[in-house]
């Protein structure tokens, strides 16, 4: 008699414990699904921004690399011509932005992996490290070139640097557009770094 009562009590306790654990398990599953959906949404947004950054970086690289203007008049000894490779800063800009463009293109498959498997930490960690290096390179190239563009537009009387944009108007417009595109790239990559940091924090 005592054994049957003890068995009944144990069965009752087990039933109560299972009923208590069931809501907790359901809540945990729901939380994991919500977190997975959030991470997948962030990864999709990452891919969209990454493609936009590729377009901006490529536009900056191509625009600067094809910038050249020759004035319609010349003398017996001089031909007035301006090209991006006349200035080492613009040459560095083309090389740096080409590297950033290449990296962003290669990073697209890793971004797709983060969409397919949002719980993967390795791909996201690799992206945030490389994105940080890319934004540093793009910022240095854009900042240095912006200083040259400013001097080309306004000159510097203290350094006897004459403004050349009145004569080379097309040249200045193209290099200015390339610099603007590089800063757009910088802003987009900064957003990518923030998205990766938030996604890693959710882990």
Automatic annotation (TrEMBL):
Transmembrane segments: 47-67, 87-113, 125-152, 178-200
Pfam families in UniProt: CASP_dom (PF04535)
Main localization of the protein described in the UniProt heading: membrane
GO cellular component, one term: plasma membrane
Domain of life: Eukaryota
Assigned keywords, A-Z: Cell membrane, Membrane, Transmembrane, Transmembrane helix
Its membrane topology: Multi-pass membrane protein
UniProt domain Casparian strip membrane protein: residue ranges: 40-188
Subcellular location: Cell membrane
Annotated coiled-coil segments of the chain: none
Family to which this protein belongs: Belongs to the Casparian strip membrane proteins (CASP) family.
NCBIfam families: A_tha_TIGR01569
Quaternary structure annotation from Swiss-Prot or TrEMBL: Homodimer and heterodimers.
Protein's name in the database: CASP-like protein
Organism: Salvia divinorum (Maria pastora)
